[in-house]
């Protein structure tokens, strides 16, 4: 086993990548490293300097055609390598290894989605995954967060807190990754509150089917979704 393979396996273990996916992705990663090093260097440039997802997808499509493999599998191999290279960006932003690996877990979530919905190993939620690769969205404990500009209405008031259009608020994403316990949710809010430097009251926003009021009509009182 070479050093690159050992590093990929260690990364996969830290982000809980399914073993089946790892075994299929390893030779793809190996091809990227050994036979397409220049192409992968361009992908890294597109990922971390140019923020050009379309260029990355073009490189991956060309790779898949040349290697005669499914483009979703080619994308998974490239994203695994990008995820490993993203470690430097997280360190540059003083984000802990715990936050880094928790954020990279979205690669595994996306892989499981592909396996479930498409019936094969791969990854197709590319642009979404890239927001974690670039540390634009990060995972703190159970939930994922980033700052956005509030703009649904000119002014919103609740529980003594007033938010005006144009102000920064903390946006929440709920990864499909196990139970959504009240304790884990509160811990995630606590970490996000401190991470984004909030003082006093803080505004969190979320757009999710989990907040559909009609769910209250049939979810039991003990439901984690209801509590959320």
Q: How would you describe what is shown here?
A:
The protein has 228 residues and is an alpha+beta fold. It contains nine helices and six strands; from the N terminus they run αααααααβββββαβα. The chain has helices spanning 3-14, 19-34, 37-50, 53-67, 71-92, 97-117, 126-133, 182-195, 224-227; strands at 138-140, 143-149, 155-158, 161-164, 168-173, 204-206. It has a four-stranded mixed sheet with strand order 1-2-5-6. A two-stranded antiparallel sheet has the order 3-4. Helix 3 crosses helix 5. It is globular, with a radius of gyration of 19 Å. The N and C termini lie far apart (45 Å).
Features:
two-stranded antiparallel sheet, 6 strands, 4-stranded mixed beta sheet, 228 residues, single chain, alpha+beta
What radius of gyration results from the CA coordinates? 19 Å
Question: Which parts are unreliable, with pLDDT below 50 for 5 consecutive residues or more?
Answer: none
Between the first and last Cα atoms, what is the distance in angstroms? 45 Å
Specify the helix fraction band.
Answer: 55-70%
Element pattern in H and E: HHHHHHHEEEEEHEH
Portion of residues in beta strands equals: 5-15%
Q: What would you call the structural class?
A: alpha+beta
Strand order of the largest sheet: 1-2-5-6
> Quick one: how many beta strands?
6
The largest pleated sheet is described as: 4 strands, mixed
Give the overall average pLDDT: 94
Q: How would the global form be characterised?
A: globular
